[in-house]
Amino acid sequence: MASEKKDVTTGIVKDSDRWHFDIYAILEGAQELYFGDQVQINVNLVETVKLGKDKPDKCYLSPTKRRGVERRSLIWAPVKNGKLLGDKLNCGIPNTCADLECPICAVFGGLQPGKKTLVGRLVHGGGVAVQEMDPVEKQRAMHPSMISKEKGDDPIPFKRQYNEPGLLYPVYNHCLSVTDEEFTAVAYAFLDSLARLGAGNPKGLRIHEHQSRWVGEPLLVVDRYLAPLGKRPVVSPSLDETDEVIKQFADAAEQFTPSENFERRKGKEALKYLQECAAGFVKKHLTGS
Amino acid sequence: MYGIRMLIRPTGGLTFRRLPGSILHIGSYTFVPPTTLSGFLRRLVMMLAAGPSLDLAAFVKHQETEREMYVLPRDLIPVGAYTGDSGHWVHTTKRQGIRDFKHDAFSRLYRVAAEKEVYQLHDWDYLMCEDLTGYLLGKKEECLSPLLGLGNRGCKLGKEGYAFIADITGPTQYRLIDTTEVPSTIVPGRLLAGHPCDAFQVYRHDWTDGPDGGLFSPSPSPVRGFVPFMAGLTETPLKAEYYTDGTTFIPKALVDILQGEVV
């Protein structure tokens, strides 16, 4: 095996066909969400970005946060015998195992300083909210748990910003040269992380369904390809009209040339594909049969 | 001289690490530096050429051997990619950087106080923009044409982020003229005396006399390392020699430096 690894310049043994994969989705905050940035005195701020000097601030679901939640949803995935997957593989954060056989490190990458580096082949993008809605600031308090209150047991007040519910976040995951089997971890992590995004409570986003385009179908596109023969449904982060964003996303998603080198799945078909991949991951790595 | 123009569309924030720089503040250039664009295009060409076999050479860090670099051949001169009228913004956020990799405190569900649970707080810059316009020059028209097949292809760009080539046009002829215009690219420092600008230390490749296998070769480029030079972005008209197609103005001095001429 060791000599086989030296035969290829990449260090990665070719065991089955590799493809590029892209996931494009429009996520919707199903309730108020907290994607923290920094803490000012008594106020916990959410992260916002802008796209130019004179442009407004927009709420932001940063790709780095999605990446962190996705990786942890794999590490904390339950294995049949009561262990978690990270314990079974001996792979954590920041002590990643960086083994070629690790389904987490294979796509997310790993590092054992001075020993080995496994370059991540999954890249996350997007996350700038569509609507220009400022975060709301809410009063919160840390209440002591006593039933009878004595002097000095006053609740400690603080304020916290939240991203408003209903905000739409176009997001993108790009995989470079992974096998179908390696992609199952990406599909599992993408789907499983949706319910877990957001710090504290509440958590969770859903894949948006629109009332005028792709009615009853999730705004989700999954490409599996060698040659990029479809228009990429990447929408400009400076657009702020929901209908225009959905139109651009759906119009682009419908412009493609199916071929043996390019497969595109949209809406329910794309979701079903991701679910089947995730089920494959569960079968191979979690239930162990 | 001939040139092609590319519209590069990022799918999220990008980081082009400014060096020299602080460890704690990961600063970003506000444009794609010429050397970064060179590596990005070479990687895309290799992915295009590899076809179904998808040789992964372009993704690998060669740590054990001498540093090997895959860049465009010397007769192709990428001069960087720049945000246009749609504007840009450098978003600075906090990131928890790892100081010790030999623990797993950040993936534990049950934590007890651990000495190793240390991190360093970075200020991390992300360049937010809609798209960037990149220029690639070549002395011969035919050496540019293989890159025209890169439309819609994408991969990782810079330290963080992903971008694809949304549009690619050319080759068009670039004439050398002496004029006063707003440069389309960074300008070497010596032309900037007396002009307000954002100044950066940027780099060019340090070429060796070794053989260059060309765009599609699996062997690394004859590059020894990087040589720094000062350059700036200015919005004021500047009198200089430019390569131009009528709308784009690329200072000859920049092209000369990138090709390795000692100035």
Oligomer: heterodimer
**Rg from alpha-carbon coordinates of chain A:** 21 Å
- Largest interface, by Cβ-Cβ below 8 angstroms: which chains and how many residues each? A-B, 57 and 49 residues
Global outline of chain A: globular
Ends apart, CA distance between termini of chain B:
20 Å
Uncertain segments of chain B are 57-64
Element-level helix/strand string of chain A: HEEEEEHHHEEEEEEHEEHEH
Radius of gyration of chain B: 20 Å
Q: Pairing-aware structural class of the strands and helices of chain A?
A: alpha+beta
Q: Work out the helix count of chain B.
A: 3
The percent range for strand residues of chain B is 35-45%
**Strand neighbour order, sheet with most strands of chain B:** 3-4-7-1-9-8
How many helix segments of chain A?
7
Give the amount of beta strand of chain A, in percent. 25-35%
Any overview of this molecule?
- The complex is a heterodimer of chains A (289) and B (263).
- Chain A is α+β, with helices and mostly antiparallel strands and 289 residues long.
- Chain A contains seven helices and 14 strands.
- Chain A has helices at 2-6, 63-75, 85-89, 103-108, 180-194, 242-253, 267-286; strands at residues 18-29, 36-40, 43-46, 48-49, 58-59, 110-112, 116-118, 122-126, 136-142, 156-162, 168-179, 205-207, 220-225, 262-266.
- In chain A, strands 1, 8, 11, 12, 13 and 14 form a six-stranded antiparallel β-sheet that branches. Chain A has a four-stranded mixed β-sheet with strand order 2-3-10-9, with no helix packed on it.
- In chain A, helix 2 (63-75) crosses helix 5 (180-194).
- The longest helix of chain A is centred in the last third of the chain and has 20 residues, at 267-286.
- The model of chain A is unreliable at 1-7 (pLDDT under 50).
- Chain B has 263 residues and is mostly beta strands.
- Helices cover 11% and strands 40% of the residues of chain B.
- Chain B is built from three helices and 15 strands.
- Chain B has a six-stranded antiparallel β-sheet, sandwiched between helices.
- Chain B is globular, with a radius of gyration of 20 Å.
